[in-house]
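Troubleshooting log. The previous structure file for this entry was overwritten by mistake, so regenerating from the original sequence record. Sequence copied from the archived sheet and checked twice against the printout by T.R.
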Amino acid sequence: MRRALQVGVKPYTISTDIYRHNIDGPVHSLAMTMSKLLALGVSLDEVIEMSTLNPAKILQKEQEIGTLTEGTRADISLLRVKKESLQLTDSEEATLTTSSYLQPELTIKSGKVLKCI
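Regenerated output below.
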């Protein structure tokens, strides 16, 4: 991703590709994947859009999901920017140390508040 960004190629969407062999790393979660892009210099606004609205557009559901527009389904993840050092590892075991990362705090799904662990 670092090389792609250096030549001006940015992802349109962000996903995790989590499955049973990589849940314990290096993927961990969508928030961690988002943090990796932030650490590479992608703005928070872009990272949020790549994780919400852009995937909804691909599915042609931007009038239903991926936005907080009135009348849409409001499934929400509350993320905190944690200001502490963290070592990030990619699928090729390359590492990058960041000074901040996204920490999930809670999720609202179908009107139910779910606290993150």
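The longest helix spans residues 30-39. Archived copy saved in two places this time.
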